[in-house]
Amino acid sequence: LQAYERRFPTCPLIPMFVASDTVNEYKSEDEAIHVIERRCKLDIDAPRLLKKIAGVDYVYFVQKNSLNRRERTLHIEAYNETFSNRVIINEHCCYTVHPDNEDWTCFEQSASLDIKSFFGFESTVEKIAMKQYTSNIKKGKEIIEYYLKQLEEEGITFVPRWTPPVACKLESSTSHTRRPVSPAINIPDSAAKEGLNSKEILNISSSPSEPTAGTPDDKLDADYIKRYLGDLTPMQESCLIRLRQWLQETHKGKIPKDEHILRFLRARDFNIDKAREILCQSLTWRKQHQVDYILDTWNPPQVLQDYYAGGWHHHDKDGRPLYVLRLGQMDTKGLVRALGEEALLRYVLSINEEGLRRCEENTKVFGRPISSWTCLVDLEGLNMRHLWRPGVKALLRIIEVVEANYPETLGRLLILRAPRVFPVLWTLVSPFIDDNTRKKFLIYAGNDYQGPGGLLDYIDKEIIPDFLGGECMCEVPEGGLVPKSLYRTAEELENEDIKLWTETIYQSASVFKGAPHEVLIQIVDASSVITWDFDVCKGDIVFNIFHSKRAPQPPKKDSLGAHSITSPGGNNVQLIDKVWQLGRDYSMVESPLICKEGESVQGSHVTRWPGFYILQWKFHSMPACAATNLPRVDDVLASLQVSSHKCKVMYYTEVIGSEDFRGSMTSLESSHSGFSQLSAATTSSSQSHSSSMISR
User: Fold this and answer.
1) pTM to 2 decimal places
2) Rounded to whole angstroms, how far apart are CA atoms 618 and 76?
3) What is the Rg, in whole angstroms, of the alpha carbon atoms belonging to the chain?
4) What are the pLDDT digits (tens) for 619-675?
5) Which part of the chain is the GOLD domain (predicted)?
6) What is the average pLDDT across 539-568?
7) Which of 573, 563, 580 is nearest to 615 (CA)?
8) What is the CATH number that goes with domain 292-485?
9) For 503-552+573-621+644-663, CATH number?
10) Are 412 and 375 spatial neighbours (Cβ–Cβ below 8 Å)?
11) Which of 4, 11, 540, 569 has the most crowded Cβ, counting Cβ within 10 A?
12) Which three-class secondary structure string do you get for 170-203?
């Protein structure tokens, strides 16, 4: 706080901050409350022509700092005084004490910008404001560290905490209970929704986090961290808590364990924004392809069990599970021709899922955190056959998927007996491998692995496989050529690939401009509950729910321009007849919901009447600008992002009978989550028969 106060009345590290004057100041008698209001003079970096047109050289802002030493909070509010009738700028910063560790400071910042009019230069003013705001955020940490260092040079390294005067202490002990420490305060939703959220927001809620299965309630417990997570700095620990809590507040699906969240943080050097983005993309991918259930529901084809030369084999010296892959003995061309790319990918995913499970088991066995595995790749027998183009293409896709969804799971990769053809393969695949992963590769040519610094440094002698000169019998299949009688045609493989990814509870549908996709649900008993869960895979759509007393005609598939369209990407069925009129033949029972590409939507509706309910996914068109016939910038950008008038959704619906429904609607809360969005803005709305929460 003392370092922050040194920014006034002016700060040489902020060239645009010319001067400031104190307008109002208030201090409470016990000095716990200190409110100071300043008028700040800023020299905005704007084009000279714009300043001349506006008729000003400087702009003035009013900044109000409210310090509460008793509750240990500092709130900073700022708004523009200059051009306040044309441009409205509001900024809110908040410093609080971490609810679980009082030695940590939480910082939140948000701002909003509303340009009503500015001499026809609205777009320019917006760009200038964004540039200045971004620049200030980036400099914030640098400035506070500068003044902290200045204080240290003056010998000030500790500031005693505020304590109430003696009289206040006596009074509070006799007539009042002790006030609790104020937790971190969230910015109001309305301000955050309208504004620009800082990428350095540390949004830590005051409510205790709910425990997840298999982990202790207190996630800050030192024993828990040492036992399950390993050495973490306070900052890394804080990043983990914040990301996990954000998931608990916004993600309606299965919350990954701390160990898995930590992998994504490590993969992005604990940059929360980047880690959150790839983690949310991975969670959406896992849900769409039902990866969580792959070990329980999918049985590998016999061809894989016989000819895929890989398997788990004990553990290395660090306790990591050891996976052995005899790539040189594997007929990659034969496997691709017999099974297709998707079956190979699914098998590799099952290996990775098994690896995660084995890491958890070894953590319990060895009593220390084990979050990755070691892979031993034997290249004896590798030749030009392995460089078959479709096989390399399949390998590159597998690497891409694994890198995106299983970061930091490879602890070490031992490549043995690399032949002369290996550099060719390495040149092809290395660009697709993350730099951090590449650092874990150890490559041995010929029999170098038997010498100093070789295999014995990483694997106990007793478990070195027999085919590498060890004494341990390895049960990994020996591979060999896949019989050509097992090869399948390109058409058969394509159909099999489509079948593999559609064998889930989800259905796929295409939505075209002028051709929505509709699902019919017949309700016999009123007060039943219709539930839905869908992902918008491509384009933007509008989701509607309608009710009709009469059944729509079944879709006709035999005539051109009829009600049903079939495409490789999914079905399109239209049930509402073109002659039907809204309000006469059918009625809308929920407000339309606009869903953006990449969003996941779950919800429910309690039915009032029996009859026929129609769930509709409709192509969303950007509304034209009312004031002018010229297209808006947003419209142009949207048209560029959606290359064709086609959307795609994956959906699942279910009806819960009234006799089976128990509890309040909170258990069936409708949520609309955009995992690709990193904004923390949250709004909520409720209706008579459903509730919805939109989190982006």
Assistant:
1) 0.49
2) 44
3) 31
4) 987 654 444 444 444 444 444 444 456 888 888 888 877 555 443 333 333 444 433
5) 502-655
6) 68
7) 573
8) 3.40.525.10
9) 2.60.120.680
10) yes
11) 540
12) HHHHHHCCCCCCCCCCCCCHHHHHHCEECCCCCC
